Model the fold of this input.
Amino acid sequence: MFFFFGSNLFGQTSIDWKLMPGPRNLDGTYSDIHQLFFDRNNTLFALGYYGLFISTDGSKTWRRRQPSASEGFINYAMALDTNSDVLVATEKGIFRYRKNSDTWDDLNDLLPTSKVLTVGVATSGTIYIAMENANLYISTNNGSSWSQKNQGYQYASSPALYAGFDGDMFMCASSRTIVANDKSTGWTLIPTLPHYIEDYLRFDTLIYAADGAYNFYLSLNRGKTFSEATTTQGPGYFTSDSRGKLWSESSTSTDKGHTWKNLVNNSRYTPVHLTCDTANFLFGTLPSNSGTNSAIIRTVLPVASVSTKVEHAQSLVTAFPNPTLTKTTFSFTLPYEEFTVLKIYNPLGIEIATLVNQRLPTSDRSIEFDASHLPSGVYYYRLQVGGQVETKPLVVAH
Done:
């Protein structure tokens, strides 16, 4: 499993974890969670087999939501659309949860069958779904209508969709990986990705992929071709200080953060999914056989306070001057259109300013920040561009 922080991919060191209150099913039992992510407003979504669970306080409390048409039926996958609403693929079709109105949209009127196995949203906003009848459908108008995109696709019982660059969508199915986008008539095989991809990460202009046999692949040309990277084999986290060209298995020493520690019985487990909130707390899910009473686990401290290893030559954002007496300017380049968030945090990890929170076109950006009103100390600025995140210290010295 990849762990992404700053402009490196690497494992954390000297981290402690704690169990969090997990979401519960209607019968009061703790729900298994097979997808977990935060939206840009720091709302945590957890997808269980029989419910979508939502937390706005960092997993302290949860509320359960499920469309009435699919109550009692299995949920397979979820994805955020361009409005940060949640698309849920279920045994009874595809549905959209609108967080602001706490309502569901049924998007199945123009689809031939009900069971939707997976869902993904490309950077262009196009929605992709795979159905049990060996059909793939796309929607370029946020689910109002659908069209088939089957050419080059072979049915798979457990397909997976991953958004690439420039509107590309990668489909992992039947031990192979194919790619399509809005302009293509069908799907094209990627022969340099020979296995079923189980983990995938877009970062900077690169794409990383890993299969179930712990083989790692790297694309330097935005997903057009992949080359196999060197790695040691085995379960757990893998780390890279060479931008994915060389991977090594992380340490399994106590409290290294690469394995999970149950604070109840001191057993350690490997998380199934990872996500990070805006305060840099890392959240993960535990598998159903973990022996715990909760499926959610969180770092005790923010990740940024433990390790902020950054390759400055590959940075997403810089601040100058830093240290600053009064004002500093944040500079960054957007190589493609993407939703962008730039925030400032105080030394305790509390958000104190939002400088950018919108979708921006390809451009070079410079944003001035007045720190003259802040007490002297070490602050943090955090830039998120799509799935890429970088956090750095900002020193204010009056």
